[in-house]
């Protein structure tokens, strides 16, 4: 059995065929995300027409409903009409849709760093911060499917406006964007970049101070999540995750929590974990296999 | 069918008989919590010997394991040996144990303010802050049973030490203790009490400023919880809950969240919701009734 997995982001669309073991069994195709809604739909149709598969599995930006059929609302950096997409209408085969961070969390649970952990929290540290939470072996979706948003407060005094429009969310501290803002605050250099910081934090004391503050903000967020969820582990994925010290985070989290010991680990399901998780979830939904 | 419910707190122990509808069908008995472990166990045995029942249901301070048989670890203001209690050994009938905030959340879900809400967060605002979270109609327990602790951060700059030993948890801002600390900071009066504030916040501008800051800290915590859980509602219980403005909180939360609209409501299952929830959970566990 094969799933045609399609990963939809604000800048890139990927596709690949994936088997029931979560293995990628084709080339991974890559497209720039079109700037108009019609072109996006045309891209989906072209990908679908070009392959043989049993099910289509979308891993997408945006919150997805509990039926895994549609996007709940606005999604940031993709055309505003995107949520109106009727995914099932794209194919005669079953079509499944889930949020990309949820898909990546599922891939880690099935074949990656949180394998066999019935309770875990995954944080995707990139330009923003994504989240996928697994409770008793199921994705935490909430009443409408929007759960797992990492927009809890880090301060109460309105210091940084988050991309969501509210103040001082975890995302605007723990993301790459957050690292740059921490860099600006500590260095008083408005032109400092994440590359400046990441390139020099092991040797330059100022850059180390910036990096440590950023990492400690991530730590404080994880402490709160561990107290809320008592997870087996917290998985860090995304482009910024490679730089953090998970041994340090594990030690410090376990010093600070009131729940039971946990661990912080790096994701291991690979760059295409979103597509893999979408495929495995689709197999489970339509064929009861996982 | 009747449950003998026993509510164990650091200062008081209550007991009552409760039927399958969650109705209290006896007098509620009240005892001061003894200062020694042996006396606590003797109190339990005396209560149990004096009643006819089908099941014993403990609603207790402390985190409780996923089998609902024992306390996981230290519990604050009760004798340190309390976690070693073998609850089942206290009776020939089935014995059930659950954390008091979880029990209260369950009572609200079954007969109270969150009735029929499959996803909800309950906050108990008292001297401290308790939490009980319901996900898809089940208590959120986590890997060992300790989930639902409201110890996520409100600041990153180490301003207030929480009772848990870590810095700046939600509890030390949103609790009655937090209200007093906010009062001390704003009024510069170290002797200010919660009674001073609650008694005058509707007429005195300084007391209003203190109260509003405290209520807005609660608001910010709820925003984070709503973004994580996408709940049908957030239920406020406990002695401090009667003072907050749930219409204001609902409006503000819905302005700030990225998830779908929710509401903030006051608990309605009564003062003994812990015992009621414990009884209903016990019936469900041992007899499949809820």
Q: What's the domain count of chain A?
A: 2
Number of helices of chain A: 8
Provide the structure class of chain A: alpha/beta
Round the mean pLDDT of chain A to the nearest integer and report it.
96
Give the helices and strands of chain A as they follow along the chain. Answer: EEEHEEHEEEHHHHEHEH
Into which percent range does the helicity of residues of chain A fall?
25-40%
Biggest protein-protein contact in the assembly = A-B, 52 and 53 residues
CATH topology of the largest domain in chain A: Nucleotidyltransferase, domain 5
Strand order of the largest sheet of chain A: 3-2-1-4-5
Strand content of chain A: 15-25%
Measure the end-to-end span of chain A. 12 Å
Fourth-tier CATH superfamily name of the largest domain in chain A: ATPase, nucleotide binding domain
Report the uncertain regions of chain A.
Answer: none
The CATH class of the largest domain in chain A turns out to be: Alpha Beta
The overall strand count of chain A is 10
Largest sheet of chain A: 5 strands, mixed
Specify the overall morphology of chain A. globular
Describe this structure in words.
2 copies of one chain form a homodimer. Chain A has 2 domains: 2-104 and 271-287, ATPase, nucleotide binding domain (Nucleotidyltransferase, domain 5, 2-Layer Sandwich); 116-266, ATPase, nucleotide binding domain (Nucleotidyltransferase, domain 5, 2-Layer Sandwich). Chain A is 34% helix and 19% strand. Chain A contains 8 helices and 10 strands. The first copy, chain A, has a 5-stranded mixed sheet, with helices on both faces. A 5-stranded mixed sheet of chain A has the order 8-7-6-9-10, sandwiched between helices. In chain A, helix 4 (176-187) crosses helix 6 (205-229) and helix 5 crosses helix 6. The first copy, chain A, is globular, with a radius of gyration of 19 Å. Chains A and B meet through strand 7 and helix 6 of A and strand 7 and helix 6 of B.
């Amino acid at each position: 059995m094969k799933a045609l997995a399609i990963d939809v982001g604000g800048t890139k669309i990927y596709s690949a065929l994936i088997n029931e073991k979560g293995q990628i069994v084709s080339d991974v195709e890559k497209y720039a995300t079109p700037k108009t809604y019609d072109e996006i739909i045309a891209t989906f149709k072209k990908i679908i027409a070009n392959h043989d598969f049993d099910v289509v599995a979308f891993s997408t930006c945006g919150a997805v409903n509990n039926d895994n059929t549609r996007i709940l609302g606005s999604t940031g950096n993709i055309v505003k009409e995107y949520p109106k997409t009727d995914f099932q209408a794209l194919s005669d085969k079953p079509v499944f849709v889930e949020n990309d961070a949820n898909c990546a969390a599922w891939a880690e649970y099935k074949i990656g760093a949180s394998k066999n952990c019935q309770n875990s929290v995954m944080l995707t540290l990139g330009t923003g911060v994504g989240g996928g939470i697994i409770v008793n072996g199921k994705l935490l979706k909430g009443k409408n499917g929007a759960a797992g948003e990492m927009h809890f407060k880090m301060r109460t005094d309105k210091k940084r406006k988050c991309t969501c429009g509210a103040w001082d969310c975890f995302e605007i501290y723990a993301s790459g964007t957050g690292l740059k803002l921490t860099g600006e605050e500590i260095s008083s250099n408005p032109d400092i970049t994440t590359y400046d910081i990441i390139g020099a934090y092991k040797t330059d004391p100022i850059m180390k101070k910036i990096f440590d503050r950023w990492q400690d903000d991530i730590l404080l967020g994880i402490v709160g999540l561990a107290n809320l969820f008592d997870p087996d582990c917290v998985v860090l994925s995304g482009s910024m995750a490679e730089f953090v010290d998970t041994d340090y985070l594990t030690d410090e989290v376990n010093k600070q929590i009131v729940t039971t010991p946990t661990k912080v680990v790096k994701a291991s399901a690979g760059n295409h974990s979103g597509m893999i998780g979408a495929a495995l979830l689709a197999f489970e939904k339509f064929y009861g296999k996982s």
